[in-house]
């Protein structure tokens, strides 16, 4: 059977899109120049949190769809290991500030003054999906394979060449879109994390002070804590910076002192694909339906299911409108 859809990219955007397309009955191949466990997606924190991404109205819709899907995966009835868990915690600000617009969506409530950590003036408490990304990416690969999809290690030099490979091509290339789609709007925002042994912390914490120069967050997994972070615009260096790691541990230990003595397990670095707005568009190129799904900044996991479902709807709508598309396996 000829491949109906090629998805470029095996990060969270590409894999989730491929899962949705394959489960909708299409024959899907994912082409990726990095293995899934070496992508930015695998290095992410990763909480459901619409951070560093625009435009607001569609981001809200995509975030909501993803929140529902991830919540469902966290209570998976088959007890498959998805890597998704619901975790309670707080976002707190050092200055008085309003709850973010997505607060009600997540069921957030404003913290009483005595719930806040020393030095914090405002905050909100909620439960949200926390994703163990190395595990979740493997779950997505397994789900794609179960739906008949497959992966190929392959670098695409140009989209003009890629569109010759299938009647539908979806570009989910993250920061790679800067060269692949010749899109100068795509910029890397480098992020670094430290993973340490969990000394017994069960709730998440995130400093959300507006304009703060440094990021501070603590994401608890059963055996590990993911500590963040950094956000360096225009920096494409994937090597961990020891000084940044030390500073991350110092900031997190100022919030939770038990972190100071925790054993370091791993350093992670990834490149957030920042763009003025997410690019979720479609065009025709040499007769092929070419869709773009990239530029998710610091919220690729948060938007993944919303964007993937929208791409899938767009593909099926285009196919339904084209009675001259016998090349597509229904
Ligand atoms: C430190 C850090 C913490 C983060 N925390 C969170 C969080 O808590 N919540 C959240 O929602 N988001 C978070 N993010 C953001 C999130 O990780 C990204 O938005 C998301 O991973 C982007 O996914 P993607 O699939 O679009 O890109 P990627 O994961 O970068 O995948 C791109 C894929 O495209 C492939 N590719 C690129 N170019 C080509 C080419 N020419 N040919 C073939 N293949 C190609 C690559 O090999 C790769 O498979 C974080 C990011 C970082 C760095």
Could you explain the architecture of this structure?
It is globular and about 60 Å long. 28% of the residues lie in helices and 27% in strands. The longest helix is centred in the C-terminal third of the chain and has 22 residues. It has two domains: 188 residues, NAD(P)-binding Rossmann-like Domain (Rossmann fold), CATH 3.40.50; 128 residues, D-Amino Acid Oxidase, subunit A, domain 2 (D-Amino Acid Oxidase, Chain A, domain 2, 2-Layer Sandwich). With 330 residues, it is of the alpha/beta class. Strands 3, 4, 5, 8, 9, 10, 11, 12 and 13 form a nine-stranded mixed beta sheet that branches. Strands 6-2-1-7-15-14 form a six-stranded mixed beta sheet. α1 runs parallel beside α8. The termini are close together. It binds flavin-adenine dinucleotide (FAD). Flavin-adenine dinucleotide binds next to α1, β2, α2, β8 and β13.
Could you give a short description of this structure?
This protein has helices at residues 12-23, 40-43, 56-74, 133-146, 159-162, 177-180, 242-255, 300-321, and strands at residues 5-8, 28-32, 84-93, 109-110, 122-131, 150-153, 168-171, 187-197, 204-207, 217-220, 224-228, 232-233, 264-274, 279-285, 288-294.
